[in-house]
Design goal:
The structure holds two protein chains of two kinds. By secondary structure, chain A is an alpha+beta fold. In chain A, 38% of the residues lie in helices and 26% in strands. Chain A folds into four domains: 89 residues, no CATH class; 50 residues, no CATH class; 70 residues, SH3 type barrels (Roll); 80 residues, no CATH class. Chain A contains ten helices and 13 strands. Classes of the chains: A alpha+beta, B alpha+beta.
Chain lengths: 336, 305
């Protein structure tokens, strides 16, 4: 009977952690419990079949190790020709003891709920298991705070995975300045900012680093080229936000109860009737336009004029379509 | 179905590290700590016990105190030098992403902020993900709500509804839930005499009361994921990214136009998102969604003057 894959993987981890210099594939196959060792008495066909089965199994196990974040190093030993060997350097990668309080552990447990049904769900759960091993307070489900991501796009997971293997990715993207275009980039970092996810990457077509809003990627993200295709600069240069790079200043009117994200970034410079006037810096004209629109009348752009006009134009266009649609139909349906 | 390999081995290494750091633990304590059954913990220990360095001589194996095991106490005597590793980039993004979204909502307790900064320590590749946090909610309102929830007492709110009408209402708050970075408070509203889910960023003022809550928490949490009707939106292809962000959306693209069909739970929230692609829209159905979009567009135009 074949042994439990978990047992084989655990034996492989222990063996590669203990390897003084490295272990070759042949050594792994011969000594690690769970792999079927080669046998000199087998017919050549059968021997080849088993060889291929070992290779597939070992490739799967390497993927699992990467998935778990276990640092598998390849070691080439010049005295042994070109044959690749493997080693795990566990000490660099050891989980530090982190003292999460029970309140912090409860906040962490939100992550599992947040990604429920999404590609990153199993990663969140596996991360929580690692946290549990580092702290005496177990991540538990909190009672009075919840969180959900409604979108189940797997762009983030694909990009993070590609970055770990230094694989370039390609995707369709909408930007304020260039409209819809296909981009090929070398992922550097995922940046989470004001509730939105950004990809900071080197854009091969523009030969420059750029930031991309992950929410503006269309359809699938696919990897291109081969592993280890690029290096990430150390240290990373500070990202420039947006396509123009230069910061501009807007004056936005906000109802007293509204627009706290904008308030936090800017300064209140006065009031005008029922409006607080807030001066705020921006780089993405699109982003601030969307913020003002999303406040549905509880915010207005006072300056600059072009930004105010673009807000009005968007609302006028939406109103035209909405009035057309809402007078035409009584209940909607499948008219196409 | 059998558990997948990576999560199980992650827990096996976790048990080793936990025992090394905390000393011995009972089977039940381990089960609760790692969120599995006591039977599973025993199976895990038995698997660890037969694993080791090639050769598998007795001194090469992970070892436990056998006498203690018979008493239900797990005491590690040899780890063979293995243990838990730092968070992988994907695990790091999953945990940091979720916490950042909650913190960005502005309603998170202080513990979420401190947990976020400690988390960064646990990630193997520190450059993989970075969190720049800002809040969208008045911090005083957020802390008042949290205090009231913890103390099980009412809160008196000044609230601006979707039509920007200001109302004052007394609510019995049960839970704060952050959906796509927007915080809501699930509560029983004494004015409406019914359950309500209110946007925290529309709360103008909040004062904690003394009256205890009387209505039990609603059982239908995750309200915004329950669709009320199906919408059909046709737009230019360059607005596809926004339509793709709607939960459960089905999109067809043909000749530069996309048709998106999706369930609508929170009409106002969906209309607010559609407003941001106003100039790309061709049609919006059915009528309740179109009317809400028209209402919000008029509100923007009125504000803009």
């Amino acid at each position: 009977m074949a042994i439990d894959p978990a047992e084989r993987l655990l034996n492989l981890i222990i063996a590669l952690t203990h390897a003084r210099v490295r272990m070759t594939r042949a050594q792994i196959r011969a000594t690690v419990v769970g792999y079927e060792a080669s046998d000199a008495h087998l017919a050549p066909d059968e021997a080849r079949r088993r060889e291929a089965a070992f290779e597939r199994m070992f490739e799967r196990d390497k993927d699992e190790l990467r998935r778990m974040g276990i640092p598998l190093r390849t070691v080439v030993d010049p005295t042994h020709g070109d044959e690749i060997g493997y080693k795990i350097d566990a000490s660099d990668a050891a989980m530090p003891g982190i003292d999460f309080t029970s309140a912090e552990a409860a906040a962490l447990a939100l992550a599992a709920e947040y990604w429920q049904g999404a590609t990153l769900g199993p990663d969140a759960n596996q991360g929580l298991t690692k946290i549990a091993s580092a702290t005496s307070a177990a991540p538990r489900t909190p009672l009075t705070l919840g969180a959900r991501a409604s979108s189940t796009s797997d762009a983030t997971a694909t990009i993070v995975e590609a970055r770990a293997r230094r694989l370039a990715v390609t995707f369709d993207y909408t930007s304020a300045s260039a409209g819809l275009s296909t981009r090929t980039v070398e992922p550097w970092q995922i940046i989470l900012r004001a509730g939105a996810e950004y990809l900071y990457a080197y854009d091969r077509d523009r030969a420059q680093p750029r930031t991309f809003r992950l929410g503006r990627i269309h359809g699938k993200v696919t990897t291109v080229g081969k592993e280890g295709d690029y290096t990430i600069p150390q240290p990373l240069p500070e990202p420039s936000w947006g396509d123009t790079g230069t910061a501009q200043t807007a004056v936005v009117g906000l109802r007293p109860e509204a627009g706290h994200t904008i308030r936090r970034r800017g300064n209140v410079v006065g009031t005008e009737g029922d409006w607080d006037l807030v001066e705020v810096q921006y780089r993405h004209a699109d982003a601030i336009k969307d913020e003002v629109l999303a406040l549905a009348g509880r915010a207005r752009v006072v300056e600059p004029r072009p930004l105010a006009q673009s807000v009005s134009q968007e609302a006028e266009a939406a109103l035209r379509v909405a009035e057309l649609s809402s007078t035409e139909t009584g209940g909607g349906g499948d008219r196409g | 179905m059998a558990e997948r390999t990576a999560p199980r081995v992650t827990r096996l290494l976790g048990i080793v590290t936990y025992l090394e750091r905390q000393g011995e633990a009972t089977v039940e304590e381990l089960a609760e700590h790692f969120g599995v059954t006591p039977t599973q913990v025993r199976r895990d220990i038995e698997l660890l016990w037969v694993s080791g360095v090639p050769g598998h001589a007795p001194q090469d194996l992970i070892d436990f105190d056998g006498w203690a095991f018979d008493e239900g106490v797990i005491r590690l005597t040899n780890s063979q030098g293995v243990g838990q590793v730092r968070l992988s980039p994907r695990e790091g993004v999953a945990l940091i992403g979720a916490l950042s979204a909650v913190v960005a909502g502005g309603v998170a307790p202080e513990a979420a902020h401190t947990a976020l900064s400690k988390l960064v320590e646990a990630v193997g590749d520190k450059d993989a993900v970075r969190s720049v946090t800002t809040g969208s909610v008045d911090p005083d309102v957020a802390s008042t709500l949290r205090d009231a929830i913890d103390a099980h007492v009412v809160v008196e709110l000044g609230y601006a509804d979707a039509n920007d009408n200001r109302t004052s209402r007394v609510i019995e708050p049960h839970r704060i839930v952050v959906i796509d970075g927007t915080p809501y408070v699930e509560c029983y509203c004494r004015r409406a005499e019914d359950y309500r889910t209110l946007r925290v960023d529309r709360i103008i003022s909040a004062a904690i009361g003394t009256d205890p809550v009387s209505a039990p928490a609603s059982e239908t949490s995750g309200f915004s994921l329950v669709p009320h009707f199906e919408a059909v939106v046709v737009a230019d292809a360059h607005a596809r990214w926004l339509l793709e962000s709607f939960p459960g959306v089905a999109i067809e693209e043909a000749a530069g136009a996309v048709t998106a069909r999706f369930g609508v739970a929170d009409v106002a929230a969906i209309a607010g998102r559609l407003l941001t692609i106003g100039s790309a829209l061709t049609s919006v159905d059915p009528q309740p969604l179109a009317s809400e979009l028209a209402r919000q567009a008029r509100a923007v135009l009125a504000a803009q003057g």
